[in-house]
Amino acid sequence: MSYAPLAPPGLAVEDRTQEIARELLERARREHHHLTTLNRWTKRVLAWSLSDAQLKAGVLRFIDCLPSLTTPQAVARHLHDYFPLHHLRLPAAFRLGVSLSRPGLLTAPAVSAVVRHIVEQVARQFIAGSHLHDALGLIHRMADRGVLVSFDVLGEQVTSDDEANTSVRRYTTLISELSTACRRLHAPDAVGDRPLVHLSIKPSSLSAHFDPVSFEESVADALRRLRVIARDAVDHDVAITLDMEQYRLRDLTLELARRLLVEPGLGERLQLGIVLQAYLRDTPQVFGELLSWLRDHGRRLSVRLVKGAYWDSEVAYAKQRGWLLPVYHNKRQTDEAFERLTEQMLSHRELVRPELGSHNIRSIAHAMAVAESLGSSKDAVEYQLLYGMGDAIQGAIRQLGFPVRVYAPLGELIPGMAYLVRRILENTANESFLRQDLE
Ligand SMILES: Cc1cc2nc3c(=O)[nH]c(=O)nc-3n(C[C@H](O)[C@H](O)[C@H](O)COP(=O)(O)OP(=O)(O)OC[C@H]3O[C@@H](n4cnc5c(N)ncnc54)[C@H](O)[C@@H]3O)c2cc1C
Asked: How far, in Å, from the CA of 309 to the mean position of ligand 1?
């Protein structure tokens, strides 16, 4: 099937988009008085790390390596390397901290403990917890607000078979414990036809050899483990979504989804989802091919449309190799592609269950306006937001009667660091919607 060109959005859709966006913004502002997007303290830390490009690079590199620094001396040494007192305009308190943390000084352990504490405080804004009771607590808190949850077990890109097997055990334990606990608590399995327990899975956590260079072997190795998780998910009525990671892993991830969907005895029972990234130039073509495949095989799939979380690393990776950029150059192109893909997704509801992963009021309002123009009911699209980001927007969407799911990472701080670094990049990118204050 070829990808049908879309008609330019009608004026009615544009007018309604703006009307709904105003309404959402108004409600989000009211919610904002008691729900902050990020707490003030985290905002201050993020604003400070953005104040200078060199400083931002230092903060991100430091956070990235902090998990592997096992002694206060190592923390002190890295503080000195990444925050040179002569070159950076550092706040007075931080300058004092860096000088007190010199590896030879007795104050180094105290400063190292303070630094770890600060990083943990920021991480807690984005990571829901590390225990089953944290997950259950969140399901309950969110259920009170009419919001569903998808859990993500932190940790990605495993480097050994043992690590990959551990990932599988984490996923299957979470599936059985969450569904058992929900049943014990008499929580319904599904809200409407939406599953209460939902898991997001990083394909790179399923195989130490997940590499397009050896495509068949990679798919076979990851599929072997994914099958175990999928069977458990079916047995416990849990839905799973394969998260989308770097561009180079995209085709492997889609192939995994296709293979699972045709597994005898499993494919037709599994509630499976994939993610499409609007910042990739070839996503419309890939989506068109996926729709044809679904039609030919008589399958339906959940599709979470996002803009894409790896923009900086995709650009760096392609530039290092002298390749054409797979992603758009400027944010506006990504935003426009997101809207075209939203229309495409909503026009094929017989093949896909649409989900929209965005905190951007314009992008969300546009999806609502398109769904309305197609005569769809309010539950045609599930609106998804990241835990700790956009709480006020989440409340506004619920108030208008649309389904909302929060994507909540679970796990320890240390394996969560890569995730945290990405969240920080998103929150401090100049063009990010979340930097625009609701006040
Ligand atoms: C529930 C949920 C699940 C998610 N799952 C995934 C996933 O599996 N895989 C994944 O990759 N991401 C995922 N994301 C993250 C998502 O891709 C975005 O990074 C994030 O939501 C920010 O986009 P926005 O629409 O909320 O905000 P906006 O501020 O409107 O958009 C920011 C986005 O615009 C794009 N952008 C920024 N600068 C430029 C530029 N110069 N040129 C081109 N594009 C640019 C980037 O994609 C950036 O993330 C998920 C998000 C949510 C809410």
From this structure: 5
Q: Where are the beta strands (DSSP E) in 21-154?
A: 147-153
Closest ligand 1 atom to residue 363 Cα is 25
Residue 236 CB less than 6 A away from ligand 1: no
| Predicted confidence (pLDDT) per residue in 56-109, tens digit | 778 778 888 888 888 888 888 888 788 776 665 666 666 666 666 666 666 777
Q: Is 191 exposed, middle or buried (0-12, 13-18, 19+ CB in 10 A)?
A: middle
Provide the whole-model pTM: 0.89
Is 391 touching ligand 1 by the criterion CB < 6 Å?
Answer: no
358 lines ligand 1 (CB under 6 A): yes
Contact in structure between 384 and 125 (CB atoms under 8 Å): no
Where among 62, 94, 123 does a domain terminate?
123
Amino acid at site 286: V
Are 292 and 258 within 8 A, CB to CB? no
What separation in Å is there between the alpha carbon of 259 and the centre of ligand 1? 27
Q: Given ligand 1 and candidates 37, 243, 246, 306, which is best to mutate, with the most ligand atoms within 8 Å of its CB?
A: 306
Under 8 Å between Cβ of 366 and 10: no
Q: What's the domain range around 75?
A: 40-123
**For residue 299, what are the contacts with CB-CB under 8 A and spacing of at least 6?**
261, 262, 267, 268
* 216-228 confidence digits (pLDDT tens): 999 999 999 999 9
Whether residues 226 and 304 fall in one domain? yes
| Lowest-confidence pick of 68-82, 375-389, 399-413 | 68-82
CATH code assigned at 157: 3.20.20.220
Between the CA of 277 and the centroid of ligand 1 the distance, in Å, is 8
Distance CA 270, CA 405 (A): 19
Highest mean predicted confidence (pLDDT) among 28-37, 74-83, 127-136: 127-136
How many degrees, rounded to 5, is the angle at CA 359 between CA 195 and CA 368? Answer: 70
Nearest Cα to 433, choosing from 358, 350, 371, 341?
Answer: 358
Whether residue 434 is contained in a domain is answered as: no
> How many folded domains does the chain comprise?
2
